[in-house]
Automatic annotation (TrEMBL):
It is found in: Membrane. Pfam families: EamA. Belongs to the EamA transporter family. SUPFAM superfamilies: Multidrug resistance efflux transporter EmrE. One of its GO terms (cellular component) is membrane. Keywords: Membrane, Transmembrane, Transmembrane helix. The chain crosses the membrane at residues 7-25, 31-53, 65-86, 92-116, 123-143, 149-169, 176-195, 215-236, 243-262, 268-286. Signal peptide: none annotated. Residues 10-137, 151-285 form the EamA domain. The keyword Ligase does not apply. It comes from Flavobacterium oncorhynchi. This is Permease. It is a multi-pass membrane protein. The lineage of its organism: Bacteria, Pseudomonadati, Bacteroidota, Flavobacteriia, Flavobacteriales.
């Protein structure tokens, strides 16, 4: 399989995995707090990656560890908690939609801070995708007046963190394999996540059985939606561009929408149109 086919394959697989992550967060929040969901997500991913990628840590040079640590906090630690907190007030499908702001932030930060090259069509594609995102969000806000949409600010901050992360990886860690980057990230984050989790109390939640079910969903989220997905994502960054890699966030809402339907989260006709516009943005931003 050539590089062009491979990158589209990674994009599709990641959209399926991450599109399912938001419903897993929602299930985790049934028996856990947002902080517990974020902590368990990191811990499970770290344990899994330690098993499969421990030997890859020796490939990280002393100079690279600094950037591995920085990318771990921007790309995983902060967003893991922000998304969980946001879903305590906003539907999982809407949070997934807001995640589509990532390519816009990636392109803007890439141009302003990292000096990446770009094409006019890429800029057009990002803005077309953003318009689709806004259609989805505004329609969702009007149809769910009881939800606190100030929490979407947390999602916006998370997308900025993702944008910084993807540009840092492309600029400073492109010569390091994706397993080493991912394993290094979570080795840095394991202790902070354990410390934060130790400050919480699971026993005060609904009941132990419910908490156990929630932990199971978060375990799936940590291993598949965080550990394995990050390995694939970092590989995608290395074989494509930061903007193309973050285009996965255009497809994530489509997957999250179908999960939302199964969980009685309905979208309006305007939101359906927004989904089409988002796909158009993917095409424009990725086309050479």
């Amino acid at each position: 399989m050539d590089a062009k086919q491979l990158k589209w394959g990674y994009l599709l697989v990641l959209s399926l995995i991450w599109g399912s992550s938001f419903i897993l967060i929602k299930r985790g929040l049934v028996g856990l707090t947002a902080v517990q969901v974020g902590s368990f997500r990191i811990i499970f991913a770290a344990l899994f990656l330690f098993i499969i990628g421990f030997k890859s840590l020796k490939k990280i040079s002393r100079r690279q560890w600094k950037f591995v640590a920085i990318t771990s906090f921007f790309g995983t630690f902060t967003p893991a908690y922000l998304f969980a907190i946001a879903e305590t007030e906003v539907d999982s499908s809407i949070v997934a939609i807001l995640n589509s702001l990532t390519p816009l932030n990636t392109l803007v930060l890439g141009i302003v801070i990292f000096g990446i090259q770009f094409q006019k069509r890429q800029v057009l594609g990002v803005f077309v995708g953003l318009i689709g995102c806004l259609l989805l969000v505004l329609s969702g806000a009007s149809s769910h007046p009881g939800q606190n949409y100030y929490y979407v600010i947390l999602v916006v901050i998370a997308t900025i963190c993702y944008a910084i992360n993807v540009n840092l990886i492309k600029k400073y860690l492109s010569d390091l394999n994706s397993v080493s980057i991912t394993t290094g990230n979570f080795m840095v984050l394991l202790l902070p996540a354990l410390i934060i989790l130790s400050t919480t109390d699971i026993s005060h939640r609904i009941d132990i059985e419910t908490a156990q079910h929630s932990i199971f969903f978060v375990m799936i989220l940590g291993v598949l939606g965080t550990g394995i997905a990050n390995v694939l994502f970092f590989k995608l960054i290395q074989i494509s561009s930061p903007v193309f890699a973050t285009s996965v966030t255009y497809l994530i809402p489509i997957v999250a929408f179908f999960w939302g339907l199964l969980d009685n989260e309905m979208l309006t006709p305007v939101q359906f149109f927004g989904a089409f516009v988002i796909l158009l943005g993917v095409y424009l931003s990725a086309k050479k």
